[in-house]
Specification:
single chain; alpha/beta; 10 helices; 8 strands; 13% strand
């Protein structure tokens, strides 16, 4: 099979029939063998009914329905698990991603041997203050932190080799950082293609300003995971050692000052507990112990964790 097109969605009943016709038109024109996997992430409208109708009309249309809204990352994870195509395309269901881009993305994977190609919506039709400026700031921070030189991490239109999506774990809200996850997994040939961004035709955006705050928090998480995810003790242990050294130095200074005044200078001396260094030493020792404990707990969790089911599927069609 040439292509698996994975489309997570939430309350997109108006756009689904038009999107389906557009995809089928492109697939037929290029004679691709394909499957389209719609993942209904807890829609409360008639999106699932439309998916069922489309699957009856076209056996290439497949669907997964979540019992409730679990998020885009979980939807992509479910789609990746089912995908069979040589090349996997992810796109949004709101018609802002153009299926006409699929052939070029497919060719970049198959003929130019990219592991992953990310779309870049260079010209956007979103609010400048509400989306464009925060997005540019977010993408700059993501480039600096991750080392992956993409201009648009948030673009939902991406293409992957099958082997890439089968070897990465998308969880939480990490769908923004799939290129970073791929790089950390050893897939270094990551490309970018300028794609058309279309104005939303139906409904309204499901994402608010909070996604940028969450995005920056996820960026910190993925930085930590990429560097210390397999060895948390290396970070927490090192910080613990630094704090212990500070505590020990402070303790030795307290003792040295006390002995110096008593036996060398024959001078009156204050109580140890009245010395500010005492509290520095005490605090440093406590923090150092907590950091060591955090490192040990991290190592234990890493070695004993089980892969828990992160979402519940209520229905499937053609799968």
């Amino acid at each position: 099979m040439n292509l698996s097109i994975i489309i997570p969605l939430l309350n997109e009943q108006e756009s689904l029939p038009e999107l389906h016709q557009w995809i089928v038109k492109v697939m037929t024109a290029h004679n691709y063998s394909y499957e389209v996997i719609f993942i209904d992430d807890g829609s409360t409208d008639d999106s699932w009914k439309i998916i069922e109708q489309l699957s009856e009309e076209n056996s290439n249309i497949k669907g997964i329905r979540f019992q409730r809204n679990f998020g885009k990352s979980q939807a992509l994870h479910a789609g990746f698990a089912k995908a069979q195509g040589d090349v996997i395309i992810t796109m949004d269901a709101d018609l802002q991603d153009s299926p006409d881009e699929i052939p070029d993305l497919y060719n970049m994977i198959m003929t130019q041997n990219f592991d992953l190609v990310s779309g870049w919506k260079k010209k956007r039709y979103d609010s400048v203050v509400g989306k464009n400026l925060p997005s540019k700031l977010f993408n700059w921070a993501a480039r600096k932190t991750s080392g992956v030189q993409l201009n648009d991490f948030n673009c939902g239109l991406k293409a992957y080799k099958n082997v890439v999506i089968k070897n990465i774990e998308v969880s939480g809200e990490m769908h923004r950082y799939i290129p970073v996850l791929a790089k950390n997994a050893g897939f270094a040939k990551i490309g970018e293609k300028v794609v058309i961004h279309q104005a939303r035709k139906y409904g309204e955006s499901k994402f608010g300003m909070s996604r940028f705050i969450n995005g920056f928090l996820d960026l910190i998480t993925i930085w930590f995971i990429s560097k210390y995810g397999k060895r948390p003790m290396h970070l927490f242990g090192a910080l613990g050692v630094i704090m212990f050294i500070i505590g020990l130095v402070s303790t030795f200074l307290i003792i040295a000052i006390k002995l110096l005044k008593l036996f060398v200078l024959d001078d009156s001396t204050i109580l140890v507990t009245a010395n500010p260094l005492f509290y520095i030493a005490l605090t440093a020792m406590i923090i150092g112990s907590q950091l060591f404990l955090a490192g040990f707990l991290g190592e234990i969790i890493l070695r004993t964790k089980n892969n828990e089911e992160r979402y519940k599927v209520s229905k499937e069609v053609n799968l």
